[in-house]
Specification:
α2 (30-41) runs parallel beside α3. Helix content is 35%, strand content 22%. It contains 7 helices and 7 strands. Strands 3-2-1-4-5-7-6 form a 7-stranded mixed sheet. By secondary structure, it is an alpha/beta fold. A hairpin with a 5-residue loop joins β6 and β7.
Length: 192
Amino acid sequence: MIDSVTALPAVYNSILEESKKINFSMPSDLQTGSLLGTLVRSKPGGRFLEIGTGTGLSLSWIVESMDNQSHVTSIDTEERYVKIARDFFESDPRVSIVCTDGASWILQNKNEQFDFIFADAWPGKYNTLDETLALLKIGGFYIIDDMRPQPNWPEGHAEKAEKLIQYLDNLDFVKLTKLNWSTGVIIVVRIR
């Protein structure tokens, strides 16, 4: 069937079980995870940034798809979520998991360059967006999800999402595609 995801990352179900134990209610969509894995494969030796580690569900797609010369930095503010991700990935030298404020990290690392940024939290998406896009190499992917209305959106969030989409549409140094698929995914490529 074309809309199903057949091959989950090896640690995905174990992370999901641990996530349920702490009532983690924000797992990434499987289709989005599969897309992330596919895009990661296109960047051998790549440098990847995930803003919004959560418990590591999306990170599992990224890590499983990376080659041995790649590296991912994943950032989240919530220690109890990050602890689960660390339990599964801290022994992998290709992975750095940082528990800190994403916006502060972005501002403190403005000289870094990434082949791929998955912004799955407010920093890098609804704040510090310009600074985050400046971290993206030419030809690099910037991916955001949850751009279609979600049941857990607070009042007024739909307007924020619409403003973000309009802002991205008006940038002249990127090319983007909006997918009315999964939770609503936008894929941006920096073209200059």
